[in-house]
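Illustration: FAD-binding protein.
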Amino acid sequence: MTATGSLPAPLHDALEKVLGSSGLLTASSDMASYLTDWRNLFHGRACAVARPANTQACAEVVRLCAEHGVPVVPQGGNTSMVGGATPDTTGHALVLVTSRMNRVREIDPIDNTMVVEAGVTLKAAQDAATNAGLMLPLSISSEGSAEIGGVLATNAGGNNTVRYGNARELVLGLEAVLPDGQVLDLMRRLRKDNTGYALRQLFVGSEGTLGLITTAILQLQPKPKSIEAALCAVADAKTALALFAAFRNTEPSAIQAFEFMSGLSMNLVNMLIPDAALPLSEPAPAYVLVELASPRGGDALRELMEEVLGKAFEDGLVSDAVLAESETQRLALWKLREEHAEAQKRAGASVKNDVSVPLSAIPTFLDRATAACEKLIPGIRVAPFGHIGDGNIHFNLVQPEGMDGNAFLARDHEMMDTVANIVRELGGSFSAEHGVGQLKTYMMPSWRGGAELDMMHRIKNAVDPKDIMNPGKIFPAS
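Result:
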């Protein structure tokens, strides 16, 4: 169901004056694509969709909505895995889309920074940095659609976290519109600025509940002159971690990404994604994609890759491997990793568990969680993959072949809780990088209750006492 709610006439006229007729959508057909999430789990309604082109228009939209008591749901590329950018079903909220705020304003090659608006896609920002001879190290599967504002609001992690950290570590400054329409200017490109609270960090990871990020200053890195990638066949997560330790103990600064993929999940990619063929002699129980990078040229990385993998073969950690011989081959290896979510979507209904545990606990977690889920739903296809180098595993569960997809999804909380209980026992988190959104709000009281959740409530109430910004996200219903 995607129908329009009621936009008060005075608010409609004021918004149209600010945005123009093309910047304000009220017809159901025009709004439909903004009211459903990427996974097709949440279907909302809205009174309107606003598409401001700059910070001033964005601030005026939020101010007007606050005056009329209309909630605002910020939305970037609409790639949320947890329904974080989808409105509820009341039709009361306005969806504020940032896609028209899409300029890379400046790149400073001395500071190694870029000033970028919220609606710039992550891929466009990466390309702009590359064209300037630099690199924006944040990389996620949805980077062609995900926009900078949403990437920061969810503190995205991704493939290169093991070396460069999450989005939070890359933000020097930002500009945000507060729930009352004020513009908070924190656009300082300083590495050192010890003047009270680091307010910018309140907005990174807040999922739009405290305000709307409109512009950011991001740290860049030197563009690598040398990159080496290899796909390795391993027996299990334990041997994958042993291989990670071998690279880390040899040259930790060279590791740019270290990704784990289960055999079942890789099989789905090979079966369901065109031009995603496994380049190894035969299927394996599990796989690792390792990428090394350096701002220096030469053959040192190739020698390092061959040295570590040669010893890994001798020690029985790796049974087969292929090294990329060109950029085309490197991208083909990454395609095998990046298409796991899409392959699982094509395989049927799936329940996603974006969890993290200490590295040493990953093998135990995978063994226990797999056994528990297979006992809960016989025939379930357990298809974990993810950023094993930083402890983040996407423990995804695909419906048994022949089972009704809706019947499978009706038991999503059972599956999520089964996995989460094991994660809790191992000292992990039920949300590593996707956020809470509206999918996992029910988990917050037991996981973050007491003083921690109370502190979050106090901050939310202080900044947004009318609950204007993205209501129903992060916090459980009271």
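Reading the tokens back as a structure: The first helix runs from residue 9 to 19.
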